[in-house]
């Protein structure tokens, strides 16, 4: 039974003792390795990343702080690149893009997916080669398209009929050719949160395969001077753990490639199956290795192309979360702790930290689960069911909904939340005029600020008074 609650139905369930998947740890000080970046461990109870202790990081850079294990990020990027050796890997910059990360992605030889003029500007500032950038977006402005064409972007993933017209005009005006793919919806229900599932029919992205509009727009593109058709693009959603959805989508997309070849006489050389590969936020998540994903997707493509009687198009994929997510944890300082009685005599400890929904809105937006550890010291105290909350004026401002933390966590302690490298800083906001947190990259015992913390002056700089 749900109890009415000002933060909405997701919060305040009667008798909530924590979800069924949450296990009380034998040792509350220990880390669950699969949730943390490769170079993170505890040394005498203190969380350490690539030789830097979080106590030092907090002192030097303040909290809340996004801490990136740079080698872990690079390693995941490289692993995707190597696993998909016969494909192109585009890092999805929307997960987290900064000048430094764009450089890492370039160093590791991956391509880059951007979805706005702003992301493109960051990539260009990092001197990312435009020919290895793909531009997404369901409503790209003329200015965004113009910039992309002017710099010689590698591909534009078309998502509307209007865009075809805009590209026809711009290519004529600039005297250039636009390499384009077409974003399609394959009608697949990815089993993830509704807001991050993108290939069922009733949402804003892409042209439907089933009602013929995908075929129609390809026909229009092929007949439009200045546009070069590369192939189809399907992204079925995010935080997906099973490959079935990709299989169904690939089959439908390849059938459309075959129809295009037969009816329009055009062979589409490329096919993009998007990103969406899930990561472990808590012990309930069991992600696939890039090698297994590569094997699975390549086989699907080979089999379906053979069945459709077409040459196998070159595959590309766009992982964002799976590269950036696990590389980073967020470091917070505890400010208050209190115990709240639950129905039936149980209790929950509320631990407030100095950030919250401005640095990680995913729990509020998608009911996303996270994990957490006491990062600054050992505690011999027994674990108690805890909820880590932020400092914002909103009861849905939850950082970690359910976690066992030592019962003595108190003001001044540092807490660390793993898996915050994707869609946390990139979705960060200034709710309640909280300045956005800094991002620090740690490698070989050296910490380097890659995105500085916002200041009060930054907050006030747009005010015209
Ligand atoms: N390609 C396209 C066309 C996409 O739209 C996306 C994500 C990706 C690739 C990368 O997906 P990934 O591998 O990172 O799952 N804010 C949400 C996720 C939104 C994803 C939007 N598109 C979240 O925090 O879960």
How would you describe this structure to a colleague?
Strands 4, 14, 15, 16, 17, 18, 19, 20 and 21 form a nine-stranded mixed sheet that branches. Strands 5-6-7-8-9-11-12-13 form an eight-stranded parallel β-barrel, surrounded by seven helices. Residues 1-16 have low confidence and may be disordered. By secondary structure, it is of the alpha/beta class. The chain has helices at residues 54-61, 70-83, 99-107, 117-125, 142-151, 161-174, 213-222, 244-264, 290-308, 321-324, 362-366, 456-460, and strands at 40-43, 46-49, 52-53, 65-69, 88-92, 111-114, 133-135, 155-158, 178-185, 207-208, 227-233, 270-272, 314-317, 328-341, 347-353, 373-374, 383-389, 398-406, 414-418, 438-443, 446-451. The chain folds into two domains: 13-69 and 326-460, Lyase, Ornithine Decarboxylase, Chain A, domain 1 (Beta Barrel), CATH 2.40.37.10; 70-323, TIM Barrel (Alpha-Beta Barrel), CATH 3.20.20.10. 28% of the residues lie in helices and 24% in strands. The termini are far apart. The structure holds ligand LLP.
């Amino acid at each position: 039974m749900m109890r009415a609650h000002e933060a909405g139905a997701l919060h305040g369930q009667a008798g909530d003792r924590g979800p069924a998947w949450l296990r009380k740890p034998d040792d509350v000080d220990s880390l669950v390795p699969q949730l943390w970046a490769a170079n993170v461990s505890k040394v005498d109870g203190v969380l350490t990343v690539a030789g830097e202790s979080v106590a030092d990081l907090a002192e030097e850079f303040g909290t809340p702080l996004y801490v990136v294990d740079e080698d872990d990020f690079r390693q995941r990027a490289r692993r995707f690149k190597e696993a998909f050796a016969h494909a192109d890997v585009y890092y999805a910059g929307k997960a987290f893009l900064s000048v430094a990360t764009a450089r890492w992605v370039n160093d590791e030889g991956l391509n880059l997916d951007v979805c706005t003029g702003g992301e493109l500007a960051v990539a260009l500032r990092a001197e990312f080669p435009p020919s290895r950038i793909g531009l997404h977006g369901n409503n790209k402005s003329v200015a965004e398209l113009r910039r992309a064409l002017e710099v010689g972007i590698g591909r534009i993933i078309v998502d509307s009929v209007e865009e075809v017209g805009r590209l026809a005009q711009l290519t004529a005006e600039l005297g250039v050719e636009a390499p384009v793919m077409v974003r399609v919806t394959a009608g697949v229900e990815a089993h993830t949160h509704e807001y991050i599932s993108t290939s069922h029919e009733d949402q804003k992205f892409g042209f439907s395969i089933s009602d013929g509009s995908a075929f129609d727009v390809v026909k229009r593109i092929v007949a439009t001077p200045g546009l070069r058709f590369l192939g189809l693009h399907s992204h079925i959603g995010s935080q997906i753990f099973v490959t079935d959805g990709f299989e169904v989508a690939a089959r439908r997309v390849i059938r459309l490639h075959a129809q295009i070849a037969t009816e329009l006489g055009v062979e589409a050389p490329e096919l993009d199956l998007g990103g969406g590969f899930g990561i472990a936020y808590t012990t309930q998540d069991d992600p696939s290795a890039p090698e297994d994903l590569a094997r699975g997707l390549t086989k699907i493509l080979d089999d379906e192309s053979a069945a459709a009687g077409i040459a196998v198009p070159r595959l590309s994929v766009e992982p964002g979360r799976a590269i950036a997510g696990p590389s980073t944890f967020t470091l917070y300082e505890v400010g208050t702790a209190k115990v709240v009685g639950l129905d039936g005599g149980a209790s929950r400890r509320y631990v407030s930290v100095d950030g919250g929904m401005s640095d990680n809105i995913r729990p509020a937006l998608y009911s996303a689960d996270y994990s957490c550890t006491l990062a600054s010291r050992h505690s011999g105290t027994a674990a108690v069911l805890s909820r880590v909350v932020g400092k914002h004026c909103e009861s849905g401002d939850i950082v970690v909904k359910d976690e066992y933390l030592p019962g003595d966590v108190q003001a001044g302690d540092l807490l660390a939340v793993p898996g915050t490298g994707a869609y946390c800083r990139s979705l960060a906001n200034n709710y309640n005029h909280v300045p956005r947190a800094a991002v620090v990259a740690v490698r070989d015992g050296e910490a380097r600020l890659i995105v500085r913390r916002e200041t009060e002056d930054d907050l006030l700089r747009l005010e015209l008074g």
